[in-house]
Amino acid sequence: MEVVRIIGGRSLAGTISISGAKNACLPLLAATLLTSETCTLRNVPNLSDVRFMIEILRHHGAQVVNDSPGTWKVTAADIQPHTPYELVRKMRASICLLGALVGRLRMADIAQPGGCVIGPRPIDLHLKGLTRLGCSVSHKNGYITVDATKAHGAYVFLGGRHGSTMTGTSNLIMAAVLTPGVTHIDSAACEPEVVDLCRMLQAMGARIDGTGSPRLVITGVEKLHGCDHTVLPDRIEAGTYLLAAAITDGEVTVNGAVNEHLGAFLDKLDEAGVSIDVINPASIRVRGDRSRCRPVDIITLPHPGFATDLQAQFSAMLTLIPGISLITERIYPNRFMHVPELQRMGADIAIEGPTAIIKGGVRLSGAPVMASDLRASAALILAGLAAKGETWVQRIYHLDRGYEQFDKRLASLGATIERLDASAMPGDYREEE
Ligand code: EPZ
Question: 400: exposed, middle or buried (C-beta count within 10 Å: 0-12, 13-18, 19+)?
Fold first, then answer.
């Protein structure tokens, strides 16, 4: 097991380039199953979730080759429909295979994913959409079996109690592109990652109108062909590095992101008083000066609202800014596992239902803390960068799921941060074996 050790207090400076988006890459990899021809994916990030998804494609019978760094070729000539529990339980996002299997094979037999620390991860909307398409959906022994032999185009309202569903939308799109007839998806997710999937599918011959809007119109086609697609940049990674600059009073330029994908986030950063220079549509510079910053209220919402995947990282910075800030989670109301760990570092935060009430202006102090999920681990590292003294972040396997060489790249910006074996931790910090 590895840990990250940080000595806080250094202001970050320099330039960082953004990798391909994890949350685009997973459905894009699933989409390669929709054709027997070869699909080439470029700008694929080197992440544990991505490597795992590639193993799952191979399990289904696809041939997957790493052509060059970041470039993968997938040929799913002859595939099977079964996705076992031992794979799905390790990465619940593998449910994004459901739509691709239904689209290509007209059937799927996939283990139902469980929840995770950020909350229950239901798939009722995914299954509602497939049922509306005329699929028969059955549950048995923790598996979902879908028979789409009689599927047809239909109208589906896909909105749920928390708004749209990213993976639910991706699944329904992948099922509908090869389903006879016209499918209307209302209250579709508008996230850039869903738009990227639509772009790849259109390059494969799919007929999709309304991409980027909450109303998609999909006309089923007989078959899809191969493609050569470049994964869009990771807006969540970009926002995390911009916050690293803001929280350390540093000056960092982030290259390669699509600024318009960060609208709500940049708006909140600006409202908090962080100095932002948009150098060009793919380059942003942040100059942090916490003495000029002020508290803000954030509500997470589906895109184009403030991304839930950036709230933990933003809350780390708000603990330092004098005044009361509020963060309300409308997507995952329990997504506050980072809060008790930030409190160990001296943060003054109270949780009232879906809202974190942050009494900012404290001086964080380094401490041994425990990562609980991907974005919480990033938040704890950001807090460590600003804290006085030494912070040890344990269970950083969570971090590696969504950030490529996060520690090394922060070090390249001047952070005092290193990845060590857990045995390097002082004795009384170490987790029981
Ligand atoms: C995607 O998860 C992302 N993961 C998440 O990022 C992200 O937080 C989330 O979208 C919201 O933006 C990937 O893309 C792999 P949803 P997803 O379906 O698709 C409820 C990260 O840190 N819902 O958009 O699983 C659900 O409970 C990860 O990178 C239903 O009620 O999320 C949630 O409250 C974490 N029924 C809300 O909708 C359903 O059938 C949004 O979920 C489906 C979802």
Answer: buried
How do residues 350-378 score in pLDDT, each as one tens digit?
Answer: 999 999 999 999 999 999 999 999 999 99
194 alpha carbon – ligand 1 mean position (Å): 12
Name 298's Cβ contacts closer than 8 Å, sequence gap at least 6. Answer: 268, 306, 311, 314, 325, 326, 327, 328
User: Is residue 198 annotated as part of the catalytic site, yes or no?
Assistant: no
Nearest atom, ligand 1, residue 123 CA: 40
User: What per-residue confidence (pLDDT) applies to 245?
Assistant: 98
Best residue among 96, 265, 311, 331 to mutate for probing ligand 1's pocket (most ligand atoms within 8 Å of CB) is: 331
Question: Closest ligand 1 atom, CA of 125?
Answer: 40
Report CA(171)–ligand 1 centroid distance (Å).
12
Q: Could you tell me the pLDDT band of residue 44, with boundaries at 50, 70 and 90? A: very high
Kindly report the CATH number that applies to the domain delimited by 22-230: 3.65.10.10
Tokens of 321: 């800014």
Q: Does pLDDT of 433 surpass 60?
A: no
What is the number of the ligand 1 atom nearest to the C-alpha of 119? Answer: 27
- Mean pLDDT, rounded, for 336-356: 98
Give Cα 302 distance to the centre of its chain: 13
Mutate to test the pocket of ligand 1, among 19, 95, 161, 162 (most ligand atoms within 8 A of CB): 162
All structural domains of the chain with their residue ranges: 2-19+233-429, 22-230
Mean residue pLDDT across the chain: 96
Name the CATH topology of 2-19+233-429.
Answer: UDP-n-acetylglucosamine1-carboxyvinyl-transferase; Chain (3.65.10)
Cβ atoms within 10 A of the Cβ of 223, count?
12
Distance in Å, CA 396 to ligand 1 centroid: 22
Catalytic: which of 25, 39, 96, 116? 116
Same fold, 2-19+233-429 and 22-230: yes
Binding-site residues, ligand 1, Cβ < 6 A: 23, 26, 93, 121-126, 160, 162, 165-168, 308-309, 331-332, 374-375, 402
> What's the rounded Cα separation, in Å, for the pair 276 and 39?
38
Instruction: Name, in order, each residue with C-beta under 8 angstroms of 280's C-beta and a sequence gap of 6 or more.
Output: none
Atom nearest to 193 CA in ligand 1: 14
Confidence of residue 308 (pLDDT cuts 50, 70, 90): very high
Q: In what order do the strands lie in the sheet with 355-360?
A: 297-300, 323-329, 355-360, 349-352
Residue-level pLDDT at 432: 65
